[in-house]
Specification:
Strand order of the largest sheet: 1-2-3-4-5
Strand content: 25-35%
Number of helices: 5
Number of strands: 5
Largest sheet: 5 strands, mixed
Shape: globular
Radius of gyration: 15 Å
Distance between the termini: 36 Å
Helix content: 25-40%
Length: 133
């Protein structure tokens, strides 16, 4: 398995990845998904041969902030270190960025995963997150 920049956007493999994770907001709005990838600051992919196993998409300026917008791994490849390798690749690439943020579901699985990779809930550092949908 290798991690590399995702530079050749392929709609079918991306849609398949989002559908496998149940992220219908993206897979049902493919025109927006394609534009979102085009406008992203950084996109990293995990491949085994020619098969896309996972993706990490980030937005930001690369100096003061990076927001991890999406991190998805095919369900049958989860818990094999792929998500961790994607996160570590972006953290290494932008090791000097002031803050790296993400917003995720509040489940034991996601909390454990992100904590194990050095992320802390905003409330742990006396911060609060706000969102408008």
């Amino acid at each position: 398995m290798i991690i590399k920049e995702y530079t050749n956007f392929q709609l079918p493999e991306i849609v398949n990845l989002y559908k496998s994770a149940g992220w219908s907001n993206y897979s049902c709005r493919q025109d927006i998904l394609k534009q979102a990838y085009k406008n992203s600051f950084c996109v990293l992919a995990a491949y085994e041969s020619d098969k896309l196993l996972g993706i990490l998409r980030a937005v930001g300026d690369g100096l003061t902030i990076i927001f991890i917008q999406d991190i998805i791994v095919l369900p049958e490849y989860q818990r094999k270190g792929i998500g961790t390798k994607l996160l570590h690749a972006v953290m290494t690439k932008y090791k000097d960025v002031y803050q790296m943020e993400l917003l995720t579901d509040n489940t034991d699985k996601t909390v454990t995963f992100y904590r194990s990779n050095g992320f802390v809930p905003a409330e742990d550092i006396n911060c609060m997150a706000f969102i408008r949908k």
